[in-house]
Amino acid sequence: MSTFPVTVSGISPSTTQAQLHDFFTFCGKITSIDHAPAEGHATINFEKPSAAKTAIMLNGGTLDGATLNVASDVAHPDDEAHHDATREGIDQSDKPRAGIAAEYLAKGYQLSDQILQRAIEIDTKQGISKRFINYFHSLDKTVGERALGPDQTVSAKAQSTVDAAVQKAKEVDEQKGLSKIANDYYAKAITSPFGQKVRSFYTNTSKQVLDIHEEARRIAGEEKARSEVAVSQQAGGSESVPDPKTQAAPTVV
Q1: I need a labelling partner for 219 at 20 to 30 A (CA). Which of 85, 212, 243, 249 fits?
Q2: Helix 209-235 to helix 97-106 angle, to the nearest 10 degrees?
């Protein structure tokens, strides 16, 4: 099986392999890491070329107080031929680079505005993956039909109508209806008061660095709310803890 490597130098001596995995897993699925702590060097092997390309975008990012140099001897393409057309849902590497950058910021990592601009430029040049666009449109339709009725989409309705429908769906069925689907960050986001902004952020390539910071704050706010709900449920003896698989970004331990 082919892998797509990037080399990382400038790593802090105190950085562990687990920390490297946590940092680079936002780019996409990692197959292996060859870490030489004494040399401050590592090779990160990714399953898909698009993930390796995202990692290179992070050149100059900060981890554990050190500035990372991320490079590759080959150019990694955004090749959708590596995606399984029969698979449902999306992978981390399917997401827009600007969205991935927002997830990094939401988790507290430091990325310069230069890196954020780099993410925007890659999205503008390469476009957003067809799989992600199809996923987002499908989500828009699925949530719309649950809350508004057959053949309805969230994006086609005024936000006030969506808010009322979502509330009604929650009241009618807390376990089966929209409430279950809305565990997904994107589903919750597009039905929120800032839904149109979120939809535009993930489906259009025209954006600014400030838009990434704004989306990062939204993701962080949702993560905080999920954590508070989980703590509250555990304190009450409930086993209904949100599934980490529905998080907007990979779980970072």
Answers
A1: 85
A2: 50
Query: pLDDT per residue over 169-220, tens digit each?
Result: 555 445 444 444 445 778 777 777 767 788 889 888 889 999 999 999 999 9
For residue 125, count CB atoms less than 10 angstroms from its CB and return exposed for 0-12, middle for 13-18, buried for 19 or more.
Answer: exposed
Contacts (Cβ under 8 Å, ≥6 apart) of 58: 24, 27, 68, 70, 104, 111, 115
pTM for this prediction: 0.76
- What distance in Å separates the CA atoms of residue 106 and residue 99, rounded to the nearest whole number? 10
Partners of residue 67 on adjacent β-strands: 62
For 42, the 3-state DSSP assignment is: strand
- CB atoms closer than 10 angstroms to residue 65: 9
Q: Which two tokens stand for residue 240?
A: 């209904």
Pairwise CA distance, residues 108 & 87, whole Å: 31
Handedness of CA 193, 195, 201, 204 (dihedral sign): negative
Q: How many CA atoms lie within 13 A of 214 on its CB side?
A: 13
**Which amino acid would we find at residue 121?**
E
Structure tokens at 65: 């107080």
Q: pLDDT for 217-244, tens place per residue?
A: 999 998 888 788 778 777 766 544 444 4
Both structure tokens of 209: 């660095």
What is the torsional sign of CA 164, 195, 224, 89?
Answer: positive
Integer distance in angstroms from the first to the last C-alpha of the chain?
A: 28
